[in-house]
Design brief:
- The chain has two domains: 113 residues, Urease, subunit C, domain 1; 315 residues, TIM Barrel, CATH 3.20.20.140.
- Helix 8 runs parallel beside helix 9.
- The strands form four sheets. Strands 1, 2, 3, 4, 5, 18, 19, 20 and 21 form a nine-stranded mixed sheet that branches.
- By secondary structure, the chain is an alpha/beta fold.
- The chain has 14 helices and 21 strands.
- The chain binds dihydropyrimidine-2,4(1H,3H)-dione and zinc ion (2 copies).
- Dihydropyrimidine-2,4(1H,3H)-dione binds next to loops.
Length: 470
């Protein structure tokens, strides 16, 4: 039976208007007024907003690290995403050896149980002729994005020559390069010195990964993008100076785009100085108040293009089980680094938090408009990553991925509200106004208030096309 979402206010990246949305099967077939109720299932959205499902282009489910693994798998992570209004996720494939197809096959096997629609990016931890030849394999698999690192020397990092060559090859194959920007050489010098001086606490993770490294590395990536005439997308921008570099390059026509993540808008190195500071350990680290402010300003004035999560959760205390879907779950986590900050698994939960936190503290606080909210969290990532207008769009022909958003719903947020499979939430006790009420994935309601109606393997792998440069 067709479904009609009636009387809601549609919010897109550009417009806000009263209209009904008619759904047939997996697709939106009409957006307008005066649809007949006859023979359709009516869902009343009076007083609510209707948004396109969120697109989170940056997650790490089931990621092995430091002898443990990120604590959300592709099912629990997708479920948490859906409760927060996100219906599409893109995860990073670990590159194993020289075998791109083999690495993708492994990620396909892990992600087969995804509860929401999904795609992958390919981490590039080395580059040579053999890898270049396999770029075609990525396109054949419907993958159009790579990620390089300017940090993690000897593990994930490519030197600048390798990055430049990879950029030229990426352009030939219609692939977009994503870049993790920090100064690996500086970090490699600072870390052993800090340890030798007896500095073991979590905050030293931040002190040994300085923000100027992120800033210069962002400009370095933009410079290489310009020289190669190959686009670059800077992931997890964390320092205000990176937004300045992005603006500098974009104003000069360089094809560079940028993403930030909510923790970089709200938390600082001071949070990492708390006794439970390990909860905030991720790379790149938290910065300063002025960085929070500058990054939010870069969203207000459209300098930055997307807001993702870099969701990569670990338990704070992985020795104590939590209850998840009626099962006791215990996964080693941040306690691994209680005596040495370099052993704290890097990463934060956030895939569910992204939309609700940004609604209250971005839209509600008057920093960004509702249309910018939709642009950053759904439409822009869909465009950049080659799935628009199938995703990120409310129009006939688009997938019926929709969120009925209750702007009046008040909750005290925290781990009790969260379906992220970990034992803590960064936003514990935050008062929120505005929250997803119902979430649809390709026409099927998968979240109804507190009720989970989705399922394992309910998500589909999305073959992607070359994206847009926006
Ligand atoms: N940073 C993290 O903190 N965790 C996973 C990957 C990354 O880039
Ligand atoms: Zn990264
Ligand atoms: Zn990441």
């Amino acid at each position: 039976m067709k479904k009609l979402i009636k009387n809601g206010t549609i919010v897109t990246a550009s417009d806000t208007f009263l209209a009904d949305v008619l759904i047939d099967g997996e697709k939106i077939i009409a957006v307008g007024i005066d649809h007949s109720d006859e023979g359709v299932e009516v869902i009343d959205a009076k007083g609510k907003y209707v948004l396109p499902g969120g697109v989170d282009p940056h997650t790490h489910f089931d990621l092995p690290m430091f002898g443990t693994v990120s604590s959300d798998d592709h099912y629990t992570g997708g479920k948490a995403a859906a409760f927060g209004g996100t219906t599409t996720v893109m995860d990073f494939t670990v590159m194993e050896g020289n075998n791109i197809q083999g690495s993708l096959d492994k990620w396909h096997a892990l992600a087969e149980k995804s509860a929401v629609d999904y795609s992958f990016h390919m981490n590039l931890n080395h580059f040579d002729r053999s890898i270049e030849r396999q770029f075609k394999t990525l396109r054949d698999n419907g993958i159009t994005t790579l990620k390089v690192f300017t940090a993690y020397n000897g593990r994930l990092r490519l030197d600048d020559g390798g990055i430049f060559k990879a950029l030229l090859a990426a352009k030939e194959h219609g692939l977009l390069m994503m870049a993790h920007c920090e100064n690996g050489d500086v970090i490699e010098d600072l870390v052993p010195k800090a340890l030798a001086a007896g500095h073991t606490s979590a905050a030293w993770h931040a002190y040994t990964r300085p923000k100027w490294g992120a800033i210069e590395s962002t400009l370095r990536m933009a410079a290489m993008a310009q020289q190669a005439d190959s686009p670059v997308y800077i992931v997890h921008m964390n320092a205000g100076g990176e937004a300045d570099m992005l603006q500098y390059a974009r104003q000069r026509g360089v094809k560079v785009m940028g993403e930030t993540c909510p923790p970089y808008l709200f938390f600082t190195t001071q949070d990492m100085e708390r006794p439970d500071g390990a909860k905030w350990v991720c790379s790149p680290p938290m910065r300063d108040k002025e960085d929070n402010t500058r990054l939010m300003e870069a969203l207000s004035n459209d300098t930055v293009q997307t807001i993702a999560t870099d969701h990569c959760p670990f338990f704070f205390d992985g020795t104590t089980p939590i209850l998840y879907e009626g099962q006791q779950v215990k996964i080693a986590g941040k306690e691994l680094g209680k005596d040495n900050f370099t052993k704290i698994p890097n990463g934060l939960p956030g895939v569910q938090d992204r939309l609700p936190i940004l609604w209250t503290h971005g839209v509600g606080a008057g920093k960004i408009t509702m249309n910018q909210f939709v642009a950053y969290t759904s439409t822009n990532p869909a465009k950049i990553f080659g799935i628009y207008p199938q995703k990120g769009c409310i129009a006939p022909g688009a997938d019926a991925d929709l969120v009925i958003w209750d702007p009046e719903k008040r909750i005290k947020y925290g781990v009790a509200h969260s379906h992220q499979r970990t034992d803590y939430n960064l936003y514990e006790g935050w008062e929120l106004k505005g929250y997803p009420e119902k979430v649809f994935l390709r026409g099927n309601m998968i979240v109804d208030g507190d009720k989970w109606l989705g399922k394992k393997s309910g998500g589909k792998f999305l073959r992607r096309e070359e994206g847009m440069i926006i």
